[in-house]
Amino acid sequence: MNESSPTQSPSAPSVSVIMPVLNEERHLRTAVTRILEQEYPGDLEVVIALGPSEDRTDEIAAQLVAETAGTSREVRTVPNPTGRTPAALNAAIRGSRHPIVVRVDGHGLLTPGYIATAVRLLADKSAANVGGVMHAEGETDWERAVAAAMTSRIGVGNAAFHTGGEAGPADTVYLGVFRRKVLERLGGYNEEFVRAQDWELNYRIRQDGGLVWFTPDLKVSYRPRPSVRKLARQYRDYGRWRRVVTRYHRGSVNLRYLAPPAAVAGCAVGLVAGAVLHPLFLVLPGGYAAAVLLGSLREGRGLPARARAWLPVALATMHMSWGWGFLTSPRSLARRVIASTAPGPGAVSNGQAQQPV
Asked: Both 189 and 116 in a single domain?
């Protein structure tokens, strides 16, 4: 049976879709429209957590609220004055009502049947969280290059939620569709994790005995960062906070995450030693550059010429920024996280009676 076949049960559990948004005027209306158009037989609400945006995000959100008021698929908003993603997620969970919680970002576009498939798999697999593929798609040549890098093994390793793979248990998934009772029991997202909050939450779910289930039939279209600078900042932060996860959860170290810092260290040592000791050491950065160029030739097939030209830049930016962030992540971040998580990462219970799943 294809996992993407839609659920038709008239007793489908009600669903709350939570969205953390900040400066999302470009994609917010389309993202919410994709949610509202889902063919799902149960009740559905959308709760948008509004950060302090500097564009028209709040105005667009207000329009969506007005347009859906009184319907069976209402859009509502809650404030997130900090602008931090995990705080937004917890605020939206508290402001929502239903037993199934679907996370969608303001620039994420659900594919048809996403919610129905995920809800069915939660029940079929007795899972705590179900998710799928972060399907990166670009609109400009640069974004197309980043999308190719983000969906390739040379760009992100063997992460199934980036590159696809067989359905089954996973360490983590993109975004996620959760049982509310699991989120409430674990305290929701750890609000100190500016990045890597998904990975950290899924680690706690697995430590609690819950199943995180991946399926390639669930896809969310993702729009990459629109510039080199923004991509570099994004991946530097990914590296910094993934290091924090390894400090906070000692058993979470994965060899895949050590490849970028090893590449940064190897290139740095090779450049310095090559200049000071012997040119032979330049084989380290030279070998990395050759691997990126050869990988770009393979992964760039089918891309426009300008996107192919950008691809090595995208790959190197992701690798070097992630690795640099991992290597330079201050230990004070881990100490702050550990101190902030007793007795629980966050209080997400809204005190309302919930429907059984």
From this structure: yes
